[in-house]
Amino acid sequence: MAEAIEGGCRCGRVRYRATVEKLPNVYACHCRDCQTRSGSAFTVNFILSESRLEVTGEPQVYERTTPDGARTSYQRACPVCFTRVYSTNSALPGLVGVRAGTLDRSDELEVVAHIWTKRIMDGIVIPDGVPNWREGAPRDELVAVLSR
Ligand SMILES: [Zn+2]
Ligand SMILES: [Zn+2]
Predict the structure, then answer these.
(1) Edge to edge, what strands does the sheet with 53-56 contain?
(2) Among residues of the chain, what percentage have pLDDT more than 90?
(3) From the CA of 77, how far away is ligand 1's center (Å)?
(4) Which residue spans within the chain are E strands per DSSP?
(5) Which of 112, 148, 114 is nearest to 134 (CA)?
(6) CA-derived radius of gyration, the chain
(7) Looking at the DSSP assignment, which residues form a beta bridge with residue 73?
(8) pTM value?
(9) How far is the CA of 126 from the centre of ligand 2 (A)?
(10) What is the pLDDT at residue 50?
């Protein structure tokens, strides 16, 4: 049964809403970019089709192209409180990666996969049986795990 999920930034200016079949599964990324961007050990994201996401509050966009020029990511953040809310990537057209901690129901989410574990911080333990990859996961494999 379809339901609406909602979330937004810390100050409330940027808000989003999406209709989903069930609460999306989440993956953690331990890559250096994610660590730097979040100022934390890893990021947690869920993926939605871009057409499902309705956004208000005019997030600001930060563009970053990889050194080889192969892909550009577009990070959307609140211009007031600087919370990073979601991003798109030229390599994944039509999809958005939403920062899972911005969801109003973030406490109900489950991390079902970990990528870039070769950069994992000591002390963070991946539970037995949770799929993980030392570097980026092949897109189809990650999507399959997330859609379980
Ligand atoms: Zn804000
Ligand atoms: Zn990452």
Answers:
(1) 3-8, 15-20, 53-56
(2) 91
(3) 8
(4) 3-8, 15-20, 26-29, 43-49, 53-56, 60-65, 72-77, 84-89, 95-99, 111-115
(5) 114
(6) 15
(7) 64, 89
(8) 0.92
(9) 16
(10) 94
